[in-house]
Amino acid sequence: MKSFILRKMLGMVATLAFFCLGFESAHAGDARLGKMKADRILILGNSMTTCGSNQWGLSASTADKDYAHLLAKSIDEVTGGSLVLEQTSPAPDRWYDGNPLPNYNGNVINVADIFERNYKTWDNARIKNQLEWKADIVVLQFGENVPMNDFDTEAFAVAMNKLVAELKLSSNPQIFIVSHVLGRNPAIDDIKKQIVAEDPGHRIYVDLTQIHEDSSNMGQYSHPNDKGMKLMAEGIFKAMEMHAAETGTSQRYNYARPFEPLTRPAFISLPPGAVEPAGWLRDWCLAARDGYTGHMDEYDDAFKHAWASDYQMTGERLLWYKGAWPYEGGGYWFDGLARLGYALHDDALIQMAKRRLYAVADHTNANGIFFLWWLDRNNPDDRNAVAAALDGWPVWACGLLGRAMVGYYAGSGDKHVLDSLETVYGADPDCLREITGSMSNLWPAFDTYTWTGNKSIADALDAMFDEKRAGLTPILNRYRTAPDLKPGTEVENQHVVAFLENTTPWAVGYLWTGDSGYLEAALGWHELIERVAMQPYGVPVSDEWYGPTGAFRGSETCDVAGYVWSQAALLAVSGEGHMADRLERAFFNAGPATVSRDFKTHIYFQSPNRFADGSPNFPHGPMAGGGSYKPKHSPLCCTAALNRIVPYYVTNMWMATYDNGLAATCYGPCKVTALAADRVPVEITCKTDYPFNETINMSVKPAKEAAFPLLLHIPAWCKNPELSINGSVVSVQQNAKGFVCVNRSWKPGDTVRLYFPMTALVKTGRDDSQYGPYTGEHKPTMVKVPKEGSTQGPPYATVSYGPLLFSLAIPDTKDANTPEPSARWAFALDVQNPDITVERRAMPSRWDWPLDSPLKLTVNATAIDWTPAPALPKLPNSPVTKQKEASEKITLIPYGCTKFRISMFPVTANTEASGSH
Ligand SMILES: [Zn+2]
Question: Which of 292, 353, 417, 708 could be joined to 338 by an S-S link, Cβ 3.0–4.6 Å?
Answer without folding.
Answer: 353
